[in-house]
Amino acid sequence: PLSLNPSNGIDDIIVTGYALQMVYPALDTNAGDPDKQWLAPYPYRPFNNDDPQVVVAGRYPTNANECDVYDSGGGGMVVGSRAVDRGRDPFDINHNGYRDIAPPEGTGTFTEIEGYDPIGADAATAEKQVGFSLLGNHKIPDTNCVGSEWTLTRVENLMNLQDFQLDTTTRKSYMPSQGLILVEMYWEHEMLLKIPVLSPVFTAVGNDEGKMVINIWAAFPLASVQPYIIFS
Prior knowledge:
With 232 residues, this protein is mainly beta. The chain contains three helices and ten strands; from the N terminus they run E-E-E-E-E-E-E-E-H-H-E-H-E. It has helices at residues 152-159, 169-172, 199-203, and strands at 12-23, 53-60, 65-67, 69-71, 77-79, 128-130, 132-133, 146-147, 178-188, 213-221. Strands 1, 2, 7, 9 and 10 form a five-stranded antiparallel β-sheet that branches. The chain has a three-stranded mixed β-sheet with strand order 3-6-8, with no helix packed on it. Strands 4-5 form a two-stranded antiparallel ribbon. Strand 4 and strand 5 (77-79) form a beta hairpin. The longest helix has 8 residues, at 152-159. The protein starts with 11 loop residues before the first strand and ends in an 11-residue tail after the last strand.
């Protein structure tokens, strides 16, 4: 059995929920209108075409689902949405900066699921956690955040089945909307015999402190967060 050490700054279990919506952009008669279009233009969506595609329409928990304090490249931390996360709120699938609600309540032609929140004005109010973190130990590289390293891009690439031969629009249109729960585990591995001559070999693939970090992940269906967005 694996024993987690809550005080080593490494061991952690992280759970994240994803609402995944299959969208067929070719059927969108409002394309090009940011207030009505179904999806944001590329690169804020998975593919730069009008093929059916599975898009993250929500990431849970809603109050800890974004990393908005990151390294700008020079070592300094800045507030904003990381390009690696497609630069958009997980709940804002058309990237227009607010939650769309279908008429007569709003201007959209569909209703995004609830959970959108704008980026905080400064590092104190910006979100700095992605997913439910059991111990709060796992730090996301090049950020001032903890939690899941999985980005919207990585989840969408996984769920669009790019390793399968979905080479026609008809085949792609059968990709379902669904809910997903992602579980990640990180822990520090120590050699049982602690042989000094082997330690440099194993710690070479470790973290900045030379500690051997092992991680695994698993994903399962989560029907409770499956989206039911109706586009019109």
